[in-house]
Amino acid sequence: MILEDSVRPDIGLEDLGVSNPFPLYARMRENHPVYPLKDKGIWVISRYDDVKFAMERADLFSASGQKALLQPDWLPDDLKRDMFIAVQDPPEHTEKRALINRAFVGKAIQALIPFMEAAAQEQVMAVEASTKVNFIDDFARPYVCSVSDRITGADSDAYLKELGRWVQLNQANLSGSAPSTEHMQALQANMARQNAIFDAIIHDRRQNPQNDLTTDLIKGRVNGEALTDSQLRNALELVITAGFFAPTQMFCQTILYLGRYPELFQALKSDPGKIPAFFEEALRHAAAVRASLRHTTQDVTLNDVTIPKGSLAFLSLASANHDPVRFPEPDRFDMTRTNLKQHLAFGVGPHICIGAALARQQMRIILEAILARFEAISIPSDEDIKTAPSWVMNVVEDLPITFH
């Protein structure tokens, strides 16, 4: 779509999934900060202050909106997860989230650091200088999955292989019709395989408790009651998927910056203490997660526009992080910003990313290992980097790189 000076009236979800949606978002923020998509009942909220407000006000913007992405209306009951954490609001959400949160608090993360350092060293030692590697499959995926495996005890890689098609189908059908009978049968078989992976670890931990999250979840109680098997599966699914997709894409974006800007690579190599600031600005500039969804619980008015009750609010994290009111010259990569951590890449409010602190440590550790071992990184030109259209995430599908 070719855009004029203002936003055209026929913008749809597909327009938000392009590789560079920022010119469109700039026009939205300026002219239509609350914008109704042509996809019926979906409203884009694009300004920083409005997105932050919506994420903090679960009484007005319910997390049940995530069901539109995770469990669309056409999905039969036997394929639906018990989304008891991702789609609930306080107070129900709070106590259940606390069961998972204990694996991501300070002491738990500190205990993981030696393991992550060893895993990072194993990855960099496995890569020979001047050898081209598929960064996602050969580097990022093994490192990120090893951390998830350590936390949950589950086979993250086996589960993720079953999940890929499922995620794509749910996204493609957010506003569409149900898939064919044949495709639905494939989904049912896929779900059975997913369940088998989780049931195996749940059964094992009931018989042989370990010092991991799965054991903690089995022992945990909410209002005096144990979690059901369905809830246990969902909790593990949430931890593994959130701990893989977003961190892997964050990792890809940081590597792209280091490959595009050799002077940045050298600056961080000379002073690894700048890595945290670099990572925060990378999160703001090209966040892995582009949007979060909410349902309005009543009519809500923002910027003189009323979003009807029951609408799907598309909270654009990508746009909010490029709002010049909050981040002057937002398209410029600037590690010296005084408000680096005010980005919304991890969200805010009751559903703020539970693994944010872990992700920061993961990236610091692996980047320190890369910078210590190698002198430079070569990446393909932008047109040779395989990406996937997605309004949900900033998706790099294939990233061949060479370490020097």
From TrEMBL:
Which keywords label this protein? Heme, Iron, Metal-binding, Monooxygenase, Oxidoreductase
Any one Gene Ontology MF annotation carried by this entry is: monooxygenase activity
- Kindly give the PROSITE patterns that the UniProt entry links to this protein: CYTOCHROME_P450
The family assignment reads: Belongs to the cytochrome P450 family.
* Protein name stated in the entry: Cytochrome P450
- The source organism is Eilatimonas milleporae
